[in-house]
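We include this case.
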Amino acid sequence: MDSFKEKDGCVVLYYLECIVILKCLQRPGVVKNFTVQEWKERLKNPEEDDDSKLIAVKEHKTASQQVATFVIQKEIEEWFTIYFEKVRPFFLKKKESPFFFISSSGEQIFNPSSDIARFQQRFGLKNVSSQVARRHGETYMNKRMKTDAQRISFAKLLSHSNTTAERVYREKTVSEMIAAAKMFNSASDPKPSTSTAEENIKKKEDGATKNTEEDSKETVYRNFLSIFPQEVDTIPPTLKDASTFCKQHGTYLYKRWRKTQYRSRVAHISGYFDTREPTDEELKRILAEKKWTQNLPSIKDIVANI
């Protein structure tokens, strides 16, 4: 751990937050309130000899008697273990916290949506919120589930039921939820066919020249970010700044920087309201407190992201 740095720990933390929220389709409140005790009480599938584990989180968005559940496979469990044994103690230093996920300052996670936006921005990924992921996941699975039993198990997995903590820990419920998670994973991670792979190779070869040009723009953009770092509170560079930096790609740099920051700001503000939809007055007050004078997110876009 001598060479371990805070930014490395943050990458691991943000990655696991993405797993819980975007892959396991859980609400941000699950990440915020997931405890160490709940991690230690993760459950194996009692009916099958596999490596899947079910985790139950009692405090989240929904009513107190309900419990959120998500399933992780062996590889992801190993990442959770690395975080718990290496990263988390590094963040805690001499502090103590009952929460599994903590910030680099050792405190409870404040805004998982912002963490995910930072991760997506850093690695050039498409900006996807928890609401979008859940909506697409539900729509996708509703078209593929053939029985009511499957639908009920999937609904329980997404906390769309009155399943209590006591009922979740029953063996049959654990098996049903792990089966639902496996069904979702197998449906959402299809293996590409040979023909599809060949088509992708051909497209890659045909687009070699274009890719070289895109790689050049990407390199310029990364260099631009080193001069104009992008955070939610950063004052955006002007078009003149971007054109002075690179005349050829000035407009591209300017638009991409602002678009990415705009999305981050939308995610940042919407993260204040994981449990309910805000009023226009509340959003206006928060935006005023931010004192952003440029690249202001619209109330319509913020509400749509909640």
